[in-house]
Write a structure and sequence with these properties.
Blueprint (H helix, E strand, L loop, with lengths): L1 H6 L6 E5 L4 E5 L2 E6 L3 E2 L7 E2 L3 H4 L6 E4 L4 H12 L4 E4 L11 H5 L2 E3 L1
Parallel strand pairs: 1-3, 6-7, 7-8
Antiparallel strand pairs: 2-3, 4-5
Amino acid sequence: MELARALAKHVRCELVTFGPQRGEQRDDGFRTRVVRPLGYIGGHPARPIAPSLPAALRGADVVHAHQARSPASIVAALAARMRGVPTAVTDHGLQGSEWGGLVRRVFDRYLL
């Protein structure tokens, strides 16, 4: 939220997140869109499975994900890459698979 709030002072910004109820709201100059996942791998909140995520990112100029090894981050990066949209990821240390080497290749920029 703090990153979106800071970015919204300079550029149009939308925060896409996950939760039990789909919806949208405006807050401090940016829009928050909640995508409802089908579930979470291992019950972990950073591992949502959300088939509607690529559609939620349509129209983005840049996609910045959190947790490089999260399935949602990989899906977001692949969806962005297919549309020629630059990607960045902040890796907060979530353990998990390197997705067969895909993690290092799918993001344009890493913030550690």
